[in-house]
């Protein structure tokens, strides 16, 4: 059954409340940017084009290993999850894809799922495998790792699972696989580092070779958790090495939360793009580690600096494919849909600011070794309130000028509660 359908008429009516405030704000900003030489129409077009995938696991309330406080009207099925993404996409025109996690999201009826997604203008982004939890069908355990395991029969189970995930993705029209591994060790001496890495490499190569020719493999890295002494793919260098070992269509995936404190992520982005190896990107934010908080909620300037490198790379590194964008934030005590709307807004803000950077002026100032001017140029872009540009981009795409305000005034959560019930638990979590 079709749930919440946000049509143009409903959104127009919503927008009529904001348009009078929006228009003069937009024109004032557009004029002052044009004076600085910015092609405002180009910026608007780029904002309209940016599509960020929503992971199926972010639509229910996330939690920690200490507990999870579920939210009302959470999606209980894959259909529900897709329809939630449909709501976010209708409001923003920025969430035109969903990323599934297998086995949590295995479709029962592929055609029905594809039809539902198409009707909401949603594509299937990378499919994610799960070798961090044992499945009931297994007669072995991932307790001591999956693709790295010393026991070849466990590695085989993990490889087979990835091949099944590829099959599921193929049937849905997805064309990439993201592998995040929990593999690692908790105690010094527990694992032979070299053997674990070697096994992982061989397993990944097997998976890579089994992908269709037009598929990409994204390899995540993470320095800690759930193993706290060592992680097999601990950093971007290890991921890059594995990607290079697999082949051309294997790439590193940067997840903002997967770094030790104060790591210079923008520099990692630059290096990977120079090598043509930045394949995917997971947005979130954190104070301490992989906190999976709302994008831009803690370190918005860092997010801008990262986007600045992404924009530079997209313009100067044609060898790097356009990265697959995804939000990977799911720890929330907020309404998950409002949380995702905030994340999308933060991504678009940082992107728009990065598009405003005077690249020529910056290069000139760098040549002159004028560090003060370099900083002025970056911060002039960062300190611009670009929200009118985002509103205009949404208005031009027949989305909502103010997504959260409209989400609230349309009482969408209440409607979901009516349809799904008060005490729901998102499937798969
Ligand atoms: C675990 O750290 C994680 O957050 C990774 O970032 C994955 O992308 C995600 O879970 C889904 O497996
Ligand atoms: Mn991730
Ligand atoms: Mn993570």
Automatic annotation (TrEMBL):
Its EC number is 5.3.1.-, 5.3.1.14. The keyword Ribosomal protein does not apply. Keywords: Isomerase, Manganese, Metal-binding. It is an enzyme of class 5 (isomerase). InterPro entries: L-rhamnose_isomerase (IPR050337), Xyl_isomerase-like_sf (IPR036237). The keyword Isomerase applies. It comes from the Bacteria. Coiled coil: none annotated. One of its GO terms (molecular function) is metal ion binding. This is Putative sugar isomerase. It comes from Flagellimonas maritima. The lineage of its organism: Bacteria, Pseudomonadati, Bacteroidota, Flavobacteriia, Flavobacteriales.
